[in-house]
Amino acid sequence: MRRRGAWGTVAGGVLALGLLGLVLLAALGVWGVSWWSGARAQVVPFAEFRSLLEAGQVERVVVRGETATVTLNQGLPVRVLTPGGPVTRDVREVRVRVPGELATSDTTLVSLMQERNVDLRFEQPTQWLGILLNFLPVLLLVGWTAAVAALLVGLGWWAARRVKVVNP
């Protein structure tokens, strides 16, 4: 039976930790992007939003960029868009794609919201996701550099213990 030396153990451990770190980072990235993009709310077509507004079922509309988050007065069965096609689900909050110029230039839409006492807000989209994604390569570079440096220091320590220096 062949024994692995200290070098094989250290290199295997660093490689395993590096791969585990990459998998965890990828999983965190997928979760973060889906959470940040508002995947919690169901997406509805604009016509469905308009019919909910006309029926007086809309409590609040928050427009961020070209997406509006619509809070309904109560949970209702609403036709939502899914990858498999439209389905009806009971929801309390929905998202709808509304270009900002449509929301501000369509006076009938704004007046309808005023008639129904809908809380209408326009907010700036947050920039944190872009900032974090811009720092990600730097963090990966620093992490991998630290891992390689730790590997080299460990290898140097191992080699110093194994090599006997003979004084002439």
Model description:
The chain has helices at residues 6-36, 46-54, 100-105, 107-115, 128-162, and strands at 42-43, 58-64, 67-80, 87-97, 119-123. It is α/β, with parallel strands linked by helices and 168 residues long. The model has no long low-confidence stretch (mean pLDDT 79). The chain has a domain at 38-128: Signal recognition particle alu RNA binding heterodimer, srp9/1 (2-Layer Sandwich). A 5-stranded mixed beta sheet has the order 1-4-3-2-5, covered by helices on one side. The two termini are 38 Å apart. It has 5 helices and 5 strands, in the order αβαβββααβα. The longest helix is centred in the last third of the chain and has 35 residues, at 128-162.
Lay out the secondary structure.
Layout (H helix, E strand, L loop, with lengths): L5 H31 L5 E2 L2 H9 L3 E7 L2 E14 L6 E11 L2 H6 L1 H9 L3 E5 L4 H35 L6
Parallel strand pairs: 1-4, 2-5
Antiparallel strand pairs: 2-3, 3-4
Helix pairs in contact: 1-5
Strand content: 15-25%
Number of helices: 5
In CATH, what is the class of the domain at 38-128?
A: Alpha Beta
Structural class: alpha/beta
Strand order of the largest sheet: 1-4-3-2-5
User: How far apart, in Å, are the first and last alpha carbons?
Assistant: 38 Å
Shape: elongated
Q: Are there runs of 5+ residues with pLDDT below 50, and where?
A: none
Helical proportion, percent range: 40-55%
Integer average pLDDT: 79
- The assigned CATH architecture of the domain at 38-128 is 2-Layer Sandwich
Keywords:
single chain; 168 residues; alpha/beta; Signal recognition particle alu RNA binding heterodimer, srp9/1; 5 helices; 54% helix; elongated
